[in-house]
Design goal:
It comes from Alistipes ihumii AP11. Catalyzes the reduction of 1-pyrroline-5-carboxylate (PCA) to L-proline. Keywords: Amino-acid biosynthesis, Cytoplasm, NADP, Oxidoreductase, Proline biosynthesis. This protein is an alpha/beta fold. The chain has eleven helices and eight strands. It is elongated, with a radius of gyration of 22 Å.
Length: about 260
Amino acid sequence: MKITIIGGGNMGGAIAGGLAAGNMIAAGDITVTARTARTLDRIKECNSAIVTMSDNRAAVESADLVLFAVKPWLLEEIAAGVRDVLDYRRQQVASVVAGVSFERLTEMLDNGSGIAPVLYRIIPNTAISLGRSVTFIAHSGATGEQLNAVVAMFDQLGRTFVVTEEMMTAGTSLASCGIAFALKYIDASIRGGVELGFSAAESREVVMQTMRGALALLECNDTMPQQEIDKVTTPGGITLKGLEAMTRDGFEGAVRAGLLESR
């Protein structure tokens, strides 16, 4: 598969670099466009075999999959600039632009051919740059084979979940916004560690290793968090007292409120 990524910013560049480092797509079959030479140079620094250019129309001509990774307010203009050279009989289109529906994408990409493009909406999170993303994919018109190929591609960059379009906003809240929410807890724990007497550097390392351990318990034991919590709490014990204080001060409600507010 040849892929063109229109927009070589943080997300587009991370996707390109991750795919180039994998074994499904040769780096030379990845083309990335950007408006500035500085951005294109950064892509080349990541992997010199990735093809870079500023001409979107030329970039999409030989692609099997065209992926838009631009700011929402730029998408309509950029789509209008390439749609007449897209051939929807052989080319598929994906978007990582949050909040733009399949209906709106179809309108933007209408090139008068009477053929509706196969579309994907893809929502990763920032850990995609490390191959640790949670990525949600919804599709419109894809065959099972086409969808599986795109899922396999993004599985190289973390864990991929196929959802309906209606669940994309919820996925954004839980995983894309959620990575910031998780970091907020870690930040609070580090600050708390300093209050307990550790240095900031020591507290950071302790909290990070504690997080690794908590995740490992869930993964290795195939358990839900409450099951592991139950193993370390005893009536009247200090862990239970700490959990009760968190609940009393609104920790659980605050987490849920954050998720619901970001929908």
